[in-house]
Design a protein that fits this description.
heterodimer, A: 462 residues, alpha/beta, Rossmann fold, 6 strands, B: 98 residues, mainly alpha, 5 helices
Chain lengths: 462, 98
C-alpha cells in the first residue's frame, strides 16, 4: 500500500469515528440508551487512536507509548473520583483538554518547516490564546471547587479594566504577529499574557456562579480544539470540538437563564459582595422551629411530599439518608418526589447524579419547570440544604440581588419544612423571607443527623 | 483564504448545528454525564498530539507533543470511565424492582 492510499484509509476511519461520536450524543438523550452512547463514543475514540498509530508520518513510537501509558495512569484515578468531586474533576479535565489544544498549537508554530502565512498565524494565535486562557481559568475553577482556593469572589477596584487590558494585550500581540509573522519572540509573550488572563478571568467569580463558569470553560475548551482542527486541517478535531463547544455553550445559556443573569454579568459582575452590607441590620422576626418527632408526624400525615435537595445536603453527605427517608415514606403510601433546580449544585445536573448514586429512581427527579405547578397541591415541601433557589424574594422583592431568578415555588406548599444548620444566609449571603412565613417550620441541625432522626422516628416509633 | 479553511468552516458550521440539535434533546437529568462525555470526545486531540510526538522533528515538539498526549489521553480514559460510572447509577423505578 502506498502512503497516499493509506492516508485515505485513515481518513475513512476518522469519518467512522465522527459518526460514532454523533451517535454517542444522540444515544445520551435518554437514560435508557445512554450507556450505549458511552460505548459508541469509546469505539469511535479507540478507532481514531489506533488508526493514528499507523500514520506514515510517525517515525518514533517510544514517547507515544510512554505518554499513552502515563495518560491512562492519570486518567483511571480521575475516572474513579467520588461523585461529589465530579465538578472539580470536570474543571480539571477542561484544563487538560485546553492544555493539549494550546500546546499542540505552540508545537505546530515551532515546527518551522515552512514560514507560516499571515492567515495561518492568525489561526494559531487565536487557538493558542483561547486554549491558554481556558487552561489557567479551568485550573482556578478546579481549585475553587476543590476549596483549595477561596470560594468568595476576589475583587478589587478597577479589576475589569485590568483584566480587559490584559486580554487586549494578548490580542494586540496576536495582531502584531499576524502583521509580521517573523517576530517570533512575541509568540511566547502572547502565550504568557493569555495564561495570565485566564487567571484574572475566573478569580473574581464566586462559588454560586460555578455552574455557568464550568459550562463556559467547557465551550472554550471545545472551540479551542475545533480551532486546532482548522490549524492542522483535521476534520475529526473540527467536528469533536464543535460538538463539545456547542454543548458547553447550550449549558452556559441554560445556567444563565436559571440564575437570571447574562454572560457579561457572570464574567464581570462579581456576585455576592453587595449583599454583605445589606445583611447587617435586620429587625427581629419570628421563626417557628420543630423537632424531628414533629417533622416525622407531619410527613407521615402527608400524601404528597416534595423534597428539595441543595448544596447543603451534598456537603453533609446526606443523600443516602434521604434515600432511606424516601423509602420509608414510599412504603407508607406517601408520594415522594424531588424538585431539582438547574443550579442546585456546582455544575449542571450534578444533583441528579448524587441522587441517582443514592439509588433514587430517576423518574422521581423532577425539573423545576415541571414541578413548580404542583406545589399548591403539595402537602409538605421538605428543603434540605437549599437556600437561594427557594427564596421567594426572587419573585417579589425588586431590591433583592436575586430578583428575577427562577425559583422553586416551595412557599406555595401547605407546609414548608427547612432543614438548616442555623439562620445564616446562604451562598450569596441573601436573607430568605421563606423562613419567616406562617406555613414554614425550621428544623435546625445537621442535614444528615436530622434526616436520620426523622427516619428513626418514622420506622421505629410505632 | 486557503481552500482548506473554507472546507473546514463548512464542517465546523454543520457539526455545530448537529451538536446544537442533539444536545438540546439531552434531558437535564443527564447534563453532568453530558459534560464528561463531550470532554472525553473532545480528547480526540490526542490524535494530533500523537502525530506531533511521533514525527520527531525537534526536541521541543517532542516534549510538547508528549505532554499533550498524556493530558488528552487521560481525559479520554477518565472521561469515558466516569461517564459510564454515572450513567450506570441512573435506574428507573421499574428496573429496580426486577
Amino acid at each position: 500500500m502506498n502512503p497516499l492510499e493509506l492516508q485515505q484509509y485513515l481518513d475513512f476511519a476518522y469519518i467512522v469515528a465522527v459518526v460514532l461520536f454523533i451517535l454517542s450524543l444522540k444515544l445520551l438523550s435518554s437514560p435508557a440508551t445512554s450507556r450505549w452512547g458511552v460505548l459508541a463514543g469509546e469505539i469511535g475514540a479507540a478507532l481514531a487512536v489506533i488508526v493514528t498509530l499507523f500514520n506514515p508520518e510517525l517515525v518514533q513510537y517510544k514517547w507515544i507509548i510512554i505518554t499513552l501509558i502515563i495518560g491512562a495512569g492519570v486518567g483511571v484515578p480521575l475516572g474513579l473520583v467520588q461523585m461529589t468531586a465530579v465538578p472539580q474533576r470536570t474543571a480539571l479535565s477542561h484544563a487538560f483538554g485546553a492544555l493539549s489544544a494550546a500546546i499542540i498549537g505552540v508545537a505546530e508554530y515551532y515546527v518551522g518547516t515552512a514560514p507560516v502565512t499571515r492567515f495561518e498565524m492568525g489561526e494559531i494565535a487565536l487557538e493558542v490564546i483561547i486554549g491558554s486562557l481556558t487552561f489557567t481559568g479551568s485550573l482556578i475553577a478546579a481549585g475553587k471547587l476543590q476549596e483549595i482556593l477561596p470560594q468568595r469572589p476576589i475583587v478589587y477596584t478597577g479589576q475589569n479594566i485590568v483584566s480587559l487590558s490584559v486580554l487586549a494585550g494578548a490580542l494586540g500581540l496576536a495582531v502584531a504577529l499576524v502583521v509580521n509573522p517573523a517576530q517570533t519572540m512575541l509568540f511566547p509573550i502572547m502565550v504568557v499574557v493569555a495564561l495570565i488572563f485566564g487567571v484574572l478571568l475566573v478569580t473574581p467569580i464566586g462559588g454560586a456562579d460555578m455552574p455557568t463558569v464550568i459550562s463556559l470553560l467547557n465551550s472554550y475548551a471545545g472551540f479551542s480544539a475545533a480551532l486546532l482542527g482548522f490549524v492542522l486541517n483535521s476534520k475529526v478535531l473540527v467536528v469533536a470540538g464543535a460538538l463539545d463547544g456547542s454543548s458547553g455553550f447550550i449549558l452556559s445559556v441554560i445556567m444563565c437563564k436559571a440564575m437570571n443573569r447574562s454572560f457579561t454579568n457572570v464574567m464581570f459582575g462579581a456576585f455576592g459582595q453587595v449583599q454583605a452590607s445589606a445583611g447587617g441590620a435586620k429587625e427581629e422576626r419570628v421563626v417557628r422551629s420543630a423537632t424531628p418527632e414533629d417533622a416525622a408526624a407531619i410527613l407521615e400525615a402527608a400524601s404528597r411530599v416534595v423534597i428539595v435537595p441543595g448544596y447543603g445536603m451534598a456537603v453533609a453527605q446526606a443523600q443516602h439518608k434521604v434515600r432511606e427517608l424516601y423509602d420509608v415514606l414510599t412504603k407508607k403510601g406517601v408520594d415522594v418526589r424531588f424538585a431539582i433546580h438547574p443550579v442546585a449544585r456546582r455544575m449542571p445536573g450534578h444533583m441528579n447524579v448524587l441522587l441517582a448514586e443514592a439509588d433514587i429512581p430517576y423518574e422521581k427527579l423532577i425539573e423545576m419547570d415541571e414541578i413548580n405547578g404542583d406545589f399548591p397541591q403539595t402537602d409538605v415541601a421538605l428543603i434540605i440544604g437549599a437556600n437561594d433557589v427557594t427564596n421567594p424574594a426572587a419573585r417579589t422583592d425588586k431590591s433583592s440581588p436575586i430578583f428575577g431568578m427562577p425559583i422553586l415555588d416551595v412557599d406555595k406548599a401547605h407546609t414548608v419544612m427547612v432543614i438548616k444548620r442555623s439562620m445564616n444566609p446562604g451562598f450569596a449571603g441573601i436573607d430568605n423571607p421563606l423562613y419567616y412565613l406562617d406555613n414554614t417550620l425550621m428544623l435546625f441541625g445537621d442535614a444528615k443527623q436530622f434526616v436520620t432522626s426523622i427516619v428513626k422516628e418514622l420506622s421505629g416509633g410505632h | 483564504m486557503p481552500a482548506d479553511f473554507i472546507s473546514n468552516l463548512y464542517v465546523f458550521i454543520l457539526a455545530g448545528f448537529v451538536g446544537f440539535e442533539l444536545i438540546k434533546r439531552v434531558s437535564p437529568l443527564l447534563h453532568t454525564p453530558l459534560m464528561s462525555l463531550t470532554n472525553a470526545l473532545d480528547a480526540i486531540v490526542v490524535v494530533a498530539a500523537i502525530i506531533i510526538t511521533g514525527r520527531h522533528e525537534t526536541k521541543l515538539t517532542v516534549v510538547l507533543g508528549a505532554i499533550a498526549v498524556a493530558a488528552s489521553f487521560s481525559n479520554m480514559v477518565g472521561g469515558f470511565l466516569i461517564t459510564d460510572r454515572m450513567l450506570r447509577m441512573f435506574k428507573s423505578g421499574r428496573s429496580k424492582q426486577q
